[in-house]
Amino acid sequence: MPRKAIELPHNIEYLSILNEKGEADSALEPKLEASTLKAMYRWMLLARRVDERLLKLQRQGRIGTFPQATGHEAISLGSILTIKPTDWHVPAYRETAGFLYRGWTIETILLYWKGFEEGARPPEGVNDTPISVPVASQLLHAAGLGMANNIAGDKNVVLTYFGDGASSEGDTHEALNFASVFQAPVVFVCLNNQFAISVPVSKQMRSETVTQKAVAYGMPGIRVDGNDVLAMYVASKEAVERARAGGGPTLIEALTYRYTPHTTADDPTRYRKEEESKQWADREPLIRFAKYLEKKKVLSEAERNTMEEEIETQIKNAIQNVEELVKHPPYSDPLAMFDYLYEDIPPFLQAQRDELAKALGINTNENKDDKKKDKASAGGRN
Amino acid sequence: MPRKAIELPHNIEYLSILNEKGEADSALEPKLEASTLKAMYRWMLLARRVDERLLKLQRQGRIGTFPQATGHEAISLGSILTIKPTDWHVPAYRETAGFLYRGWTIETILLYWKGFEEGARPPEGVNDTPISVPVASQLLHAAGLGMANNIAGDKNVVLTYFGDGASSEGDTHEALNFASVFQAPVVFVCLNNQFAISVPVSKQMRSETVTQKAVAYGMPGIRVDGNDVLAMYVASKEAVERARAGGGPTLIEALTYRYTPHTTADDPTRYRKEEESKQWADREPLIRFAKYLEKKKVLSEAERNTMEEEIETQIKNAIQNVEELVKHPPYSDPLAMFDYLYEDIPPFLQAQRDELAKALGINTNENKDDKKKDKASAGGRN
Amino acid sequence: MAQMNMAESINLALDEAMGRDKRVIVMGEDVGYDEGVFRITKGLIAKYGDKRVIDTPLAEAGIIGTAIGMALYGLRPVAEIQFAGFEYYAYHQLEMHAGRFRNRTRGKLTVPMVMRAPSGGGIRAIEHHSESREAIYAHSPGLKVVMPSGPRNARALLHAAIQDPDPVVYYEPKALYRLFREDVPEQIETLPIGRAQVVKEGKDITLISYGATMRATLEAAEMLEEEDGVKAEVVDLLSITPLDTQTIIESTRKTGRAVVIHEGPRTCGLGAEVIARINEHVLLYLEAPIIRVTGYDVPIPYFAREMAYLPDADKVLNAARQTLSF
Amino acid sequence: MAQMNMAESINLALDEAMGRDKRVIVMGEDVGYDEGVFRITKGLIAKYGDKRVIDTPLAEAGIIGTAIGMALYGLRPVAEIQFAGFEYYAYHQLEMHAGRFRNRTRGKLTVPMVMRAPSGGGIRAIEHHSESREAIYAHSPGLKVVMPSGPRNARALLHAAIQDPDPVVYYEPKALYRLFREDVPEQIETLPIGRAQVVKEGKDITLISYGATMRATLEAAEMLEEEDGVKAEVVDLLSITPLDTQTIIESTRKTGRAVVIHEGPRTCGLGAEVIARINEHVLLYLEAPIIRVTGYDVPIPYFAREMAYLPDADKVLNAARQTLSF
Ligand SMILES: Cc1ncc(C[n+]2csc(CCOP(=O)(O)OP(=O)(O)O)c2C)c(N)n1
Ligand SMILES: Cc1ncc(C[n+]2csc(CCOP(=O)(O)OP(=O)(O)O)c2C)c(N)n1
Ligand SMILES: [Mg+2]
Ligand SMILES: [Mg+2]
After folding, report:
1. Measured between alpha carbons, how far is residue D318 from residues A286, B355, C226, D220, D228 in Å?
2. Average pLDDT of the residues in B314-334
3. Are the Cβ atoms of D70 and A144 closer than 8 angstroms?
4. Is the Cβ–Cβ distance between D55 and D33 less than 8 Å?
5. Measured between CA atoms, how close is D26 to chain A, in angstroms?
6. Does this complex have an ipTM over 0.85?
């Protein structure tokens, strides 16, 4: 056979379940309890409202620049539902729904955007890593966590996220390759929101889909309607189950649109057309899911309104709490910058700490107690 | 269409022309002049004999450790034939045949393995980069050269090489992606010799072929019998012509076997079976091509013997030349380490140069002249 | 002569360089239609088109590696890394190739490229957006490294960097982008790479800094003069590699006292090198230990605590007083 | 008590650590069936299997990045980078994550991993196989950095590194792998990270070094004693981060003179930091400028010229004499 086409034994699919009218494909529709469906809506709504509130706070100068997550709720929530607390959640930075679901408080999220490392401390009881700023870098941690699971003979799964832009980084390639070579139980979710800041996906790559990159790693790939929480749930569940059963990694491409600017510092009118955004407006995940729930008589408008009120109060209280909290140590203490670099502070660093304390006129004996207290309370992995 | 397989519009092929008995598939056989065929054999033979001689020199301690190229001649020569001197040749380190073809003298090659930067200075008249030691890193230069060609509106092509192991590096991914996004005229040749030092390709990747990685970049990919110089020539020619015509990059996977240890420092019996190597012995590129040429009456055994003698003399003379050469400046001058870092030596570096000169008891005024002379003769890109 | 801020003057230099020399190419993440996240590449794509102003995929090694290829080809790429903190993704290309091709090929192949990157803190950014690690490049043979401290020298240094036949890391202290304006002359200026400037003459103590911390340094010098009657000489290094040993030692010889100020971590930072060179050349003239006012050896904190991390005029002032009263 | 060379003692430490602690994992290119290109992982895969001795794909960022993930999971990965010169491919993972997770998560998530890499020149290797850039890690907050100088301390430091709760860069001066043997005790030893050793006492001058250049340094000290009757005190730093300021300044205070010796490039290298700390603490005790005997600020030359680049006993001796006669 001197010249012939090579057959690629691949498993590359597309999945959508819920259309824009809120109609589900009954053959594919997952069987979920009414209470679960209701809770799903609530988590997504909470994430949405937190995002909107963060925007206001940012405009008021009460938090720093942040990347909005509006429109990405279904991707994060649909997938996070399929893992256990002991599984690992390795997010990028638009997984607000997932963070909330995993127990990150609104207070913690606020602390992060107010510029405190304390906002990057994962809650107890779950295996989460915090927001990862350098795009793609977290994917290797996910691969390593999955490899460690196999070495330890455990049955945990790792769920990780990255953007269409992040797919261009070498780390993404290395992570997908390591995970596939070692059959690590990792589900890689690519949030393809079609933009990396200003760069459209068509300039980010020449392949028609992110999904087909799975072929390069001999792993299954599936492209999912990322605005469809049911499809996200089903695709993730399959991938998570396969991973847990020793079937190795999966690449999920969740197709959506970045409805907002990249961050609060971005002005998308510079590089994309308003019309395009409008096309996507009807497809956004919450409206569609609300329609579905209404049709199914799981959640009425009145119930939604009650939810809205509860959430409003919840967010308001969190803001109040945090704005009080940061007036006190350790938040108000700049010397805290020295206290968690190494398990024990080495002499040269203690000297720098003392130097800064002196410059700021702080009595360091007080502070040391705070640190000890805080350390003792650290649970989880440490 | 809620759930369906995604069709991948890809162009992934396999090609072989010359079988182990030296029989060519007449439909695919390239029409080459007898003189060209003869020359091809000679270049490959020269590369082989240089490689064997280097091994002896290494064993005698007359050069340092080096990676053998035996068995990789067809890949390098079959592809290098398809580009012009003004095109760019961006090699890895097993392209001895290509180096020789492009005008790198045996002397220069010897200088390299004797530990002189002078051995990495490309010859005049061709656009070559030297051996690239950090695997995969050269692929980005190739992509950049191709991008530059497009920016300048030129019609040059870039031919570059990497190993199956190198395919795991992030740089490989980034280079393939940049080249495809910008439709850079780059032909990427992966020497899949099935080993990266001790690691077999099955542990390097989970994909069945390197070729299918082309799908991830929306570029054509072709798997070629890397021991078949005619197939390498045909596949490369197609890719080079497509690139020159504006059709963008191609990934060629050249399948061969690493017949030798990784380098002279390696002991492959630690990690692979002798039987395996034996299976591949019959497939090696020179014997097969010799049979073909004999059948075609292009090259007789007698002519081959004459070639052998000429080559032997050629190599012997080169060794003599170099061993004399290195006794004199600039080779014998350690201060040369300072002379090419920047176009002009800055004061702090001149001070370090003087410091070393003093330590070695060298009169620096003499040396300066040498440098100037050498610089004036630098042509090419500089 | 026009008043402009540093963001504008860097933009001007890019525009001028592209206008003069067709080989100059601007590339990086979002440098095209978005005109750069700090608008440093404003107007360039409209003027020079998307062949010469290139929005790249999101891959730093890709950016630097292909820029090296372009430079080998004969272009003069000016590659932007969106934030200096992400350059580590590409460090292997800078170290292994940009800084070595000329040396490796004995002058045959050269890499006349510029890597621009906004560096430093003070803009309330999130993690990895405030790093200042010029010392890493200073420890990497074959690179040149420069760092402007104001609109005028920013433009002049960028022209010098682009014209330089060797690879130059051009670090932009982003806190200064829009902090102040100054006169920038009509005509293109260049500043010689490798030369520091004495920006204020004095006789009692030498304050040595560069980049963003020049502001705090100059402020401290004024306070010293007003409050203590001390005349501080202020040196703006401008070039990190080559470092202008001569200017440093001449000033220190004269004053006998020095403080070195920079944002990057202290250990193995530029301050150490400055002290080492002073020690080597004019030790006997020193009347007091040289104090380093620098970032501490921790990652620059998230922004709630970053101001405490950064050198400021008070810290410089205190260090100077400590030196003076030694 | 057994006589062994450094390659053997590092191998022994790995074996011991894996034997004691199931969480210890060895990973890297060719560390498994090939037992490492320098045979440092000899026998490990046979003893501990390919789940704990992992041949990875050829990707340094992949190695370090997945090692970070493993450490987060609770394992204690010891990741080998085949040659220190290739670590730049992974530097972003070390800087952005290994050194930051504890700090970032306020102590919740930690990265107890070791990166081993053979460093330095002198073995007639090709380009990129002889680098010594420990200063880069010293300038990267959150990492610890150690460098043995002989079989015994190599084993003890490796145990300390593996047991350390934070990420440690363990640089192996490969020229020493098989250079000499010494007694290594039966029982497992650890050396405290952050402490230097005075390996020879003296009163006239302090010679400060670490890693491969300790040999030249000790040789020079002997020559000084024999030929000049000078008693040099020799400090082996062992830890690069944290650097043992105390030992450095105590010795220099006593002798008043010092030479710092290392292989890496001079500018912003460890020598600069040592000098800066001496300046800060004991300037007034100095009787002569401290001389740096280091690699020059060029890439370490291809091997035909590398011996001229490397510090040797003669260079140290000359520097010491210059210092003594200042
Ligand atoms: C390594 C790295 N380079 C650059 C940046 C700056 N940056 C932040 S987000 C972003 C775009 C990311 O695009 P994508 O991966 O598609 O994710 P999205 O923001 O669209 O969710 C860039 C360039 C970064 N954070 N990390
Ligand atoms: C970045 C980098 N890491 C490690 C090495 C050490 N090394 C040299 S060759 C090699 C294996 C390369 O395998 P492959 O790419 O298949 O090429 P081959 O040698 O088989 O031709 C390794 C690990 C290197 N040169 N560069
Ligand atoms: Mg995106
Ligand atoms: Mg190979």
Report:
1. 77, 11, 48, 9, 12
2. 97
3. yes
4. yes
5. 12
6. yes
- The answer on A148 and A120 residing in a single domain is yes
Q: Do C65 and B175 touch (CB under 8 A)?
A: yes
- A209 shares a domain with A100: yes
Residues C13-17: what's their mean pLDDT?
98
Same domain, B216 and B138: yes
A79/A101 same-domain check: yes
> Tokens 């003692």 correspond to what residue?
D9
Give the pLDDT band of residue A2 (cuts 50, 70, 90): confident
Question: How many structural domains is chain B composed of?
Answer: 2
Q: Is A265 domain-assigned?
A: yes
Best mutation target, A129, A132, A169, A172, to test chain C (most C CBs within 10 A): A169
Give CA angle at D137 (D100, D154), nearest 5°. 110
User: Chain C residues with CB inside 8 Å of A348's CB?
Assistant: 267, 297
For residue B6 the two structure tokens come to: 């995604």
Q: What angle do CA A249, A254, A258 make, to 5 degrees?
A: 140
Verify that A337 and A211 share a domain, yes or no.
no
Q: What is the mean pLDDT of chain B?
A: 94
Per the domain annotation, does B281 fall within a domain? yes
Provide the 3-class DSSP secondary structure of residue C53.
Answer: strand
| Three-class DSSP category at A370 | helix
- Strands, sheet with C291-295, edge to edge from the N-terminal-most edge strand: C197-200, C232-236, C205-209, C258-265, C291-295
Domain annotation for chain D: domains and CATH numbers: 2-184 (3.40.50.970), 197-324 (3.40.50.920)
Ligand 2 pocket test: pick from B168, B197, B272 the residue with the most ligand atoms within 8 Å of its Cβ: B197
B363 and B276 belong to one structural domain: no
Pairing of strands C232-236, C114-119: unpaired
For B20, the token pair is 């182990």
Q: Which chain D residue has its CA at the smallest distance from B357's CA?
A: D308
Q: Is there a domain that residue B361 lies in?
A: yes
Task: Report CA(B367)–ligand 1 centroid distance (Å).
Answer: 51
- CA B102 to ligand 2 center in whole angstroms: 24
Q: Which residues of B are catalytic?
A: 258, 262, 271
Angle CA D105–D111–D114, to nearest 5: 160
User: Minimum-distance ligand to the CA of B71?
Assistant: 2
State the residue range of the domain holding A339.
333-381
At residue D1, the pLDDT reads 74
Q: What is the dihedral of CA B173, B174, B179, B181, to 10 degrees?
A: 100
CA–CA dist C299, C131 (Å, integer):
8
